[in-house]
Amino acid sequence: MFLTVFTRGGCTFAVNQCARFMSNPGPTHVAAIRRVLRHLAGTSSLGITYRRSAGTEANQLRATADADHAGADGGRSVSGWAFFLVGVMVNWASKRQPETAISTTESEFNDVLLCGLDCVYLHRMMAWLSTSNPESRCGNTHRA
């Protein structure tokens, strides 16, 4: 679980779903775990590449979000979103919604709301990082 969160975000949801049945796994759960491991072994050479970008894309934060309704197991909806900076994913999440949605529209609305909370946080952090006076961020009051 630790490695999926910090190194391979794309398989976090699949590992999380498998982890729900760790105390009593069945044949389908073992097959799912093997499939995840095969995927990881086959994509071990892939990684995130950062590159310098000029122009308007340099500081643009882009987001994408989606949700399903009632989940695959008939329970609560699952929300997922990702944030991209300079074309590279810098933040992502996939989680079950806290309440049960009664329609697809409500599920998508909840997803956008949860994504928006992260968007506000990232926007404020980017504004803080781009302030013109770096000493103010570090608590240094010395002026040259």
How would you describe the overall organization of this protein?
The structure is a single chain. This protein is an alpha+beta fold and 144 residues long. The chain folds into two domains: 1-47; 53-144, no CATH class. It has helices spanning 2-6, 12-19, 27-42, 104-129, 134-138, and strands at residues 61-67, 78-85, 88-96. The chain has a three-stranded antiparallel beta sheet, covered by helices on one side. The longest helix is centred in the C-terminal third of the chain and has 26 residues, at 104-129. It is flat, with a radius of gyration of 19 Å. It starts with a helix and ends in a 6-residue tail after the last helix.
Q: Which class do the helix and strand fractions yield?
A: alpha+beta
Question: Please, what is the average pLDDT?
Answer: 77
The major sheet is characterized as: 3 strands, antiparallel
In the sheet with the most strands, the strands line up as: 1-2-3
Fraction of residues in helix: 40-55%
Question: Into how many domains do the coordinates divide?
Answer: 2
